[in-house]
Each structure stands twice: as C-alpha cells, then as structure tokens.
Records
---
Amino acid sequence: LCTQLADEQAVRRSLVFPFQFLSAVEVLKQGNLPGANRVMDAVNQAIDYSLANVPKFEGSTLIALDSSGSMTGRPQAIGSLFAATLVKASYAELMLFSDNARYISLNRRDTTLTAAQSIPFISGGTNFNAIFQYANRAYDRIIILSDMQGWIGGGAPVASFAEYQKRYAAAPRVYSFD
C-alpha cells in the first residue's frame, strides 16, 4: 500500500483529488493500527502528488472558508482540506469567515494535510456578507466553501456583493460548494 501511495505517476494517473484521501486519514488518526505512521506518511505524500490532478485557475482566486460553529467536525475537516488544496494548487488567497472575516496565510511548504490542519476555526455564526465586506481587492473568482447555514446578515449577500463589485471594479465568478 505504501509503495502504491508513494508512486507519483500512479497517483497522478488515478485522477484522485486530495480531499478523497480524508477517510484514510481519519481511520489512521484513530491510532493503534500496525504501521499507521508509515501509512500516514505515504498518504501525506499521495495527497501532495494528487495536487497535480487539481485544475489550475488563471488569474486571482479567493477561497472563502466558513469557520462557523456549524462547520465543526467532518465539515471542518473536508472544508479545510479542500481550501488547502485550492490554495496550494492555484496560489489562491484564503479567507475565513463566520460573524466577520479575515485573511490567513498558509505555509505553502507544508504538506497539504498539515496546511489544512493548521487552519484555525473561529466558531460563531455564518455571515456570507462578510466575505464581500472584507475582501480587499478584485478577484477573478471567489470560491465559497460552507455548509450553507447562513443566518446572519439577512439572506443572500446581494447588496454586499454589488458594493464589492463597485468598490473594486470587479466582476468575479462566484462558486459555492456545500
């Protein structure tokens, strides 16, 4: 298994995306499995090799990761790994949002899994407006990763998005993943 996971060409040919290794990581973290540390090292390497399977985006990208209380647990793990993958694969910028929003930087030299695990979670509510209120430049695309449990700010962020577009003369595509 470790030999297969450490085979860069096999991982690339598999077309597996980094977040698809998450189940293996969760089982290995339960501990007390023979060879678990060796397999975890190989999974880490395979995750990084699988970055080659992630589409590269031209231009600038903002990843907005929901770090509210409702994301605790598996949604947090999936969202963090997905965010770290996109940040590393496309040199995107990362913003966390809950009641408010803030930019954070990931160490691109960390493994993708380590970078994902370093993302702090804020808790609080989910305010989609905060993404557009705190974004500080024009982006070609904004990718929102959330469980879509947004109850702060009065529904869809139509007005704050329009203000963002006007403020930066921006016309980004917005993608939202639940």
---
Amino acid sequence: MTNTTRDTAHAPLRLGFIGGGLGSVVGPAHAAAATLDKRFALVAGCFSRDASVSRASGERYGVAAQHCGIDWRAWLREHVGQLDAVAILTPIPEHAGMIEHALALGVPVICEKALVGDVAEADALQRVLDARTPGSSDFLAVTLNYSGYPIVRRLRQLIRDGELGRISDVQLEMPLENY
C-alpha cells in the first residue's frame, strides 16, 4: 500500500482498525457499517495482539497480511499517510492513549463508544485537542454504528413511510463480550 494520488471523488476512504479482530462483537459490525455504502474500504488493521488472530482477522476482512499488525503503535506509525482514518475498536480503558497517539501522528480517529472511561480522561483529551500542533489531526468522531445494520435501515424506512403507525415504546438489547 503506497500513498499515491487518488481520485478522491470516486475512491473509497482508506480505513484501518485497531482492535475488532475475530471473536469481537464490534469488529464485524463496524466493518459492515463502514463498507456498506462503499465510502470506506478496510485496508489495514492491528486487529489483535496475537499475530495469528490478527492475520486471520485480516484474511476474513480482505486485508493483505502485510497490513495486519500486532503492535498498534508500530503498525500505526507504518501506516501514517496510507490511511484516511483509523477506527479504534478496543476496550474502553485503552481508548484515550490510542486516540492521543493517532491524533499526534495526524491520523483522523473514529472511535467506538464510549470515547473515554471517565471525566479525567475526557479533560486530558480535550487538552490534547486544544494544544494540537500543525500537521496533527483534529478529526475525532464517536460511532453509533447501529445504522450499519440492514434491519435498522429497514426499520428507519418503515417508520419514515408510516408503515408501523405511531411508535410509543422501543426496547432493545445487545449482548456484549466481557471487557
């Protein structure tokens, strides 16, 4: 993967994952949501600290083995300029440091919710954003990737079309792995 001039009007944005490997609940959901409208292409990932899991995850997502890492810091440094954004899909306690590192390298960040674990981490992240230097990224987004599920898109259309009538209550559940 080289950083070449692209036809940005037609080429999908190049996305990398930190986390989201095999066995993850959020990885497949984010991959599906990100690539559903073909605006993003998952091109690299540090899917797991376990090399075999990271490679197998990359294979499942269609990512070349040479773009699958196990040390997220080294992997991210190697891919600066080759990614349009990185999605952080790790457990919440890891988010703050990963976000700060990516932003300092100038890599835009899309982070799984919750962004950080507590107010102190939020304040520290705000200070990082306030003090950013030229060349560093200031793009930081938190995802609610449920919109990537086809059933959610279908429900939205049914509601817009008035086919479900007046909705007075919604109850949802989503099982998650333990952190």
---
Amino acid sequence: NDITTSVFKLGELTLRGTSVAGVGTCFVIPELKIAFDVAQGLPFSYPVNDYFITHGHMDHAGGIPYIISQRTLMGLKPARFYLPAVVEQPMRKIISTWSELEGHEYKYDFLPVNGRVTFPLTKNWDMRTFPTLHRVSSTGYTLMQKRKKLKAALQNLTQEQIVQMRRQGEAVEEEIAEPYLSFTGDTQIEFLDLAPEVKKSRFLIMEVTYWNEKKSVASAREWGHIHFFEFIKRLDELECEKVVLMHLSARHSKAEIEFELAKLPASLRERLILFPYECGL
C-alpha cells in the first residue's frame, strides 16, 4: 500500500496522480495548478491553487489539514478548497482542532459546492460540477475548455464577408465551452444517468474499483462503487476519446485485471487506460 505516483498526458494537459481504493486518490494538473482530491496530502500537490474535493472520505480528503499546514510553512498563499457543502463544517472542526493542538491559526478558503455550479479558472478554462452517487454526499468535476467559434448564423458567409463584418465592428464569434476532462471520484455507475453530459467529455477519469467475482456487483453497489461487470455494459455509451480507469482495489492483481480487459473487443479496449499500470512518462 505504498503511495506511488504516475505522470501521463491527456491531450494538452499533464496529470500526476495516485489512486488505490481505500489508500489514497489525488490527481494534479500542473499547467492549471488544480487538483482532484488530495489523498493524504502528498508533496506533489502542495503548489496547487485550487483543490476540487469529490467527497469527505479520508482516502480522498484526509490530506486537507496537512496541505494547509505545509503550504503555510512554505509561505504559499491560502489555497481554495471546493468541497461538498456537507463536508465544510466538519472539515473546519478538524482544522480548528489541529490549530488548537499546534498553537497556530491557519488560513484557508473553503468553497462549499451545492448542485450544479461553474467556477472560472482561467481565460480558457472553467470547472463545472456534476452529481455523483456514493455512500456519502459527493460530486464530480468537469474541466470545460473555452474557445471562440464563428457564429452558427454566419457559417455560410464567405471569408471576405466575415472580414468586412469585423471591419465594421460586428461580432462574428461566440464563446463556447466544451467538456475536456471529467473526474468522478467514488460513485455508482448511475452517475451516467444523473450527468449524461459527462459521456461527451474528451477524457474521463472514473473509478472502477472491483473487477471479478472476488467482490460481487451487489457488494460493490452496497459500498457505493463501480464493478467492472457494470462498467462494460455501458462502455458503448461513452463518446470519450480515452477513459482512465482508477481507484482499483488492492485485492486484484494486475494480471487479474488484464484478464478481464482482454475479453473486450479491440476497438473498446484501445480507448481504455488502466491507472497506474498504463500511465507513465
């Protein structure tokens, strides 16, 4: 159960992360200085400005106090933590207790997440929430890429006509936001019904915790997780270029997981990335 990290690319973005069910999950995108979940508060996540927490379980959110402490020691500005609203007050109590133990008052910024909301990140990126279904209150996140596009009503005009409109000061473009990367955190498979827009993400990072008969589908569902046997029934629905499967249970060996993946048609298997085994630069 040692914490190891892998670095990989999804399109133009780099991800560094770790994810083992019950041990720790955290993924950082250094180009945007954001993180999905925080595991135990690992050093590679300290420079991040915005932390997006999916739910309050310790292997996903337990590192929040440690990150706050380490950033303070490093002289970094208080970070922003986006987290389900029901997690906010319990986490404030935890921070308060540590402040009392250490004789130091920490500064941090908690932003409670309620329902579907969008948070601006940069000129070209926003973060949008989507509902997930776990044993406790949870939320997923979609990184939205913003870009300019010629207005639909002007698609049939010539280049010369469009240039002339620009010269006259008319707006010929509109901003659109497209789902680039979605991150589920822990959830049951029904998140696909709660948030069907996630199926259109260019990249999807989702949990698939259990992989064979060692753990039944019913047991996986009881604990709010996805079983591979459920996942493969809905794989055809996903329009994603790549799907990263994370949060693997340590009860399964790499060979066992590869045995199940080998049953898939090549056209489906090539769209899947098994984390961490198939992630690394």
---
Amino acid sequence: MRASSKRVTAVAVLLTVGLFATGCRKAKARSDFHAEEVTQEAKFVDGVSDDTIKLTQVASFTGAQAGLGTEIHRGVLAYFMEANSKGGIHGRKIEITPIDDKYSAEGGEAGADKAMQDNPFLLVASSGTEAASGILKSLQKNESKKIFLWGSNSGAEVLREG
C-alpha cells in the first residue's frame, strides 16, 4: 500500500473514531449543552439532526496542494460512503461538503467562514500549512459556535499552540 493511501486511510479512521468519541449518539452531545435548556425548537446540535451529521472539509483543491486535498477528500468520502451504506453512525448518515481554500491563509479563513454559515458538526481533513492559520483564525472568530477542526494534515506550528 502506498504511503499516501495509508495516510488517507489513517485520516478516515481518525475521523470516524473522533465522531464516536465526541458523542454523536445523542444529538445534545456538546459538553456545554444543558438538558434544562432544551426547548421544542432546539432538539439538536448544529450539524447533527435525527438523520444526518454534517461535516465540512476546507482543504486545498487548487493550488500547490491540490493533489493532496483531492486525494484526502476521496479517501474520506469513500470511507463515509461505506459507513453510510451500513447505516451511518447511530442511524445518522454522514454528509461532507468540500470547500476549496486555494492553499492560502486567506482562502482557509474564507472557506471556514463560509462553512460556519452552514453550521457543520465539525471541520474535517484540512490539508496544508498555509491554509491552517486561516482556518484557525476563522474558528477563533466563530468560537461561540464550538466547531473544531479534526484530522488536519499539516505540520503547521500554529496547530500546536494554545
């Protein structure tokens, strides 16, 4: 198996484990979500409904890292299609929306800002150091939404800072 295929498989496995670990079993899984605050209108967490888990991949589909972003997307999509064919996660089908960051900090920020409008459960499988700082900038601006980045493929120091 080629190194890139192993990497894509590893990312897909990590994403799936992360989804299970973050509590998709119950729609009100976020730790800051208190049962007494539940109303008839608010029965689900952003990006998780009774039948769907919405994810967004902000990654490089054009630019210097286009090949990497595209192949990671294909691997993640293939894995989630298999999971969906077996009933999804706790009966919820996984939907993944790709957004091109054009392998730039500005593109990463713009892509993540666009993703925030769709209220995904989380951002997955970003690719590249350049875009990582932009994605994190958007996550900080939108901190109240409590969306996080899972499975980034980057060695960017900014991903390891507090």
